């Protein structure tokens, strides 16, 4: 997980609504087995940081209150809970690690104990993910490299990787330093990119069959490394553009020229941070 360097106190309400609606709409078009995979990925990635936390903070009563807010009929209850914490002086690090991470684990425990339904978990994890995205301005991602660099990766399970290889070669010819990652598992990609200094990531995916692994990867990366710009390319853009638009990527690219233009704008600071 990247460091939590605060930029300001903004909670992006527009991003909260967009991310929540996008993820819930995406889940609505997926089979239940895929929705469960996405819900478990949110819980897994958020809760992964709990063992590193001090035991004396965020008591169970507070966590239960947050969980109940995330599951309530009010779409904004969980977001208000977090905003109130920030207003009271709770740091973004404490919000993320002491509240969101632990409440993710609590939701997972409730689910496993059948205290809440699958529908509840799908709703709660969508809201939790949206809160994380709404806090994106509070994670500092300064540019540390003078040379233009990016990571290009194929989605786990993807067998057609010629396109992303060619794109990497073309970017290199234009002076970019490209770290190409292919034939990586989901966990390998997330682990490597969560520790990466990269700011720009291009994900290449095949057709509609890649919707589940691509959405799962984007969710994991958003939680593990909030400062990333994530762009999507490949046949999936043509075959399942409506689904891609729900995945909370920073953009889609249909050809190398467009990718070069957009990524150069990101690097030069013409496009604000995610």
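Q: What amino acid sequence fits the structure above?
A:
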């Amino acid at each position: 997980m990247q460091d939590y360097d605060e930029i300001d106190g903004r909670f992006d309400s527009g991003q909260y609504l967009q991310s929540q609606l996008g993820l819930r709409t995406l889940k609505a078009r997926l089979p239940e087995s895929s929705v469960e995979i996405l819900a478990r990925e949110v819980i897994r990635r958020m809760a992964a940081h709990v063992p590193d936390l001090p035991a004396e903070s965020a008591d169970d009563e507070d966590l239960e209150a947050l969980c109940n807010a995330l599951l309530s009929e009010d779409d904004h209850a969980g977001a208000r809970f977090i905003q109130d914490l920030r207003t009271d002086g709770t740091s973004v690090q404490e919000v993320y690690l002491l509240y969101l991470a632990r409440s993710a684990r609590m939701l997972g425990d409730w689910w496993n104990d059948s205290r809440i339904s699958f529908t509840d978990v799908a709703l709660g994890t969508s809201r939790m993910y949206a809160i994380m995205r709404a806090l994106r301005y509070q994670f500092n991602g300064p540019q540390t490299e003078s040379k233009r660099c990016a990571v290009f990766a194929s989605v786990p399970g993807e067998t057609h990787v010629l396109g992303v290889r060619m794109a990497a070669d073309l970017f290199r010819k234009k002076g970019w330093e490209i770290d190409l990652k292919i034939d990586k598992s989901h966990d390998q990609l997330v682990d490597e990119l969560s520790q990466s200094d990269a700011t720009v990531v291009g994900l290449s995916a095949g057709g509609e069959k890649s919707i589940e692994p691509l959405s799962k990867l984007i969710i994991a990366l958003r939680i593990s490394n909030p400062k990333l710009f994530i762009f999507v390319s490949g046949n999936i853009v043509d075959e399942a553009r409506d689904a891609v638009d729900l995945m909370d990527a920073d953009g889609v690219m249909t050809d190398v020229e467009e990718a070069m233009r957009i990524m150069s704008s990101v690097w030069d600071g013409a496009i604000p941070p995610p």
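Q: And what stands out in the fold?
A: Confidence is low (pLDDT under 50) at residues 1-8.
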